[in-house]
Amino acid sequence: APAAVQEETDLLLEPKQEKSILSRIKDFWRGTDAKIDATESKIKNLLSLHKKAREVSDLKREYEESISKKLEK
Question: Measured between alpha carbons, how far is 42 from 49 in angstroms, rounded to an integer?
Fold first, then answer.
């Protein structure tokens, strides 16, 4: 058999090997998807916390301004 044909047949996997490799790839991607979902969730939580912190900061500033106005009177 020509060398090119021989190389091609060397690359062919037995069905068992192929299933094993495919299942490992699927497991890897399943794990990656779970990590991506967890990361997205963490980012959403951080953005939510950041928004709340900004709201608290705004309230604090308003409160301090109202106190200083009352003290000026």
Answer: 10
